[in-house]
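W.,

You were right to be curious about this one. When I first looked at the sequence I had no strong expectations either way, so I just let the prediction run and decided to look at it fresh. Below is the sequence, 439 residues in total, followed by the output.
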Amino acid sequence: MVNKRKLIILLSAILIVFLALSFSIYLKKNNRTLALPIAESSKYAKVDLLSVNNALTNTNEYSSINRQFEQFVNKWDLVGATFCIAHKGKIIYARGFGMANKEEGLAMQPYHTMRVASVSKLITATAVMKLVEEGKLRLNDRVFGPDGILNDEKFLSYKDKRVEEITVHNLLNHSGGWTPRWGDHLFIKDVIARELHKDLPLDVDDYIVFALSKRLHFQPGSRSSYSNIGFVILQRVIEKASGMDYESYVKNEIFKPLNIYDAHLANNWDSLKYDNEARYYEVPEAEKVISFDGSKQSVLKSRGGNDVRALGAAGGWVISPISLTRFVMAVDGRTDFPDILSKQSVDIMKETYNGKFQPLGWRWVRKDGTLWRSGSMAGTSALVISRPDGYTLTFTSNQSHWKGARFPYVVDRSLMRIFNKYIKSIPDHNLLNVDKGKY
């Protein structure tokens, strides 16, 4: 009887070890890790986003600025929008206006997530600088060629030998050699599919291979020209350097330390929206196009026409305005909200070489030190501003405007006017229920 019991215990132990080893092999094979919670000692607090809703700013002390933002949303006929204001590390204002989903009658809340288009470039630049700090990447590393980071065979059939001179830094400050002269690579999927003799949908690598099959428009490093393809290439650079897929690396190394868990790469179809993700809208005159995967005719660009997923590192992130604001405060160089990068990395991201080149990730760095990053595409408009006086301002909308990429500049002017006149009416206390001593 005793021997039988010992045998059962032994077999049970062997089974447990076998299952543990099998699970470990599965995780390694699929490049996955266990999602462990942030340690309690983390200086960045875990935020209950759903508790930060419009009810928190329904009181009289917020009425003046609420009215101004509502008038702005109505004036520009936006379906929905959110405004978030932080001061010295504290979220002091967060409110949604209009509808997150007008068909379902769902009001916009500050916890609703939305695509943020090219604001994603700031996220990608941060990931690159993190890899530099980890010693896994250098800004002067060559990207292409036999000795480059992306030296896979499919990337070696380039037409212009000058691509061998392109560095990681060139991609970050838009000096890689591409201009939008013949159109943005990421929005001419039909042309690329025909030239590569491929069916839709295209893979990220297809866009890169197509770009390499043409001559560069200028000598790498000689000047800046805003380019989505450069940041799409950085997605593959990050993956090669980190040994992880791009989304996983950013989530694990950038967002997880900040206790941000509502950021994801976008899905293309309306039916695949994430929990609490808003629905996207365009102007009434918006033309419909063939779907990104060629399966459907006549869809809106924001609901399956554009391949937002392929934009990835250049424009594919979905995130709430509260989380986006906290991320921006963690890369702005101020000390009221601790940065997740070193001061040296943050300063490098701001470099423009006297305005000759784009900064790294940011769109503009103004003379007074204001940091500015916009994003705009079909169904989306976004803007983040970090001011040297300790204020961070975030605007996101689930509708694109007929002004297109110029609309964030309209938002900027209106936001500054409203902010300067009504900021004193906003109580300077944190809307987030966080532990004392945490951010």
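Here's what jumped out at me. Residues 31 and 243 are 8 Å apart (CA to CA). And, maybe more interesting for your project: Strands lie at 80-87, 90-101, 106-107, 114-115, 264-265, 317-319, 364-365, 371-377, 380-386, 391-397.

Coffee later to discuss?

I.
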